[in-house]
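Please, is this right?
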Amino acid sequence: MDIKKPLYWISFLIILLCSFSLQAQDKKKSDQAYKKGMQFFAQGKTKEAIKSFDIAIKEDSSFVDSWIKRGFMRGMVGDFEGEMNDYNHVIKMYPDHVNAYISRGGAYNRLSDYEKGIADFNKALELDPDNQEAYNNRGFAKKGLGDKDGACDDWNKSKQKGNAEAKIIFKNNYCK
């Protein structure tokens, strides 16, 4: 009886170590697929990038950056439903993920659904009050709604936080 207990624990440890090894292999495949997707993205090969992000997600479904990048790529090819599904998935997994709200808000802006965009940028700013990108993109949503003063206020905040695009907006005298 005493002999069986150590064998049980040794077997348990071997199985545990093997599972960690398999997880590490999956993570490596996921990282490689993500890097390949980013290379395709840089080359303007959108469909290939999506396929690489698909692989990264299949290998590691918790790899948030793959979901975000695939969502963006899906939007670029006109698959707005797929884009939203990816951002929604990240928000469901990680409700405090600032970039997911900014990405989804940007998608709403591209679809001219500015109120939903503003809601997402507000959530991003609630989570990260100094986020220059959220201010900048919320400015575009407010502009889309015809609120020039509100847009300029947000772009000014974004500019003060170092956002290059907001600096250009002010340089071009849009906000006087």
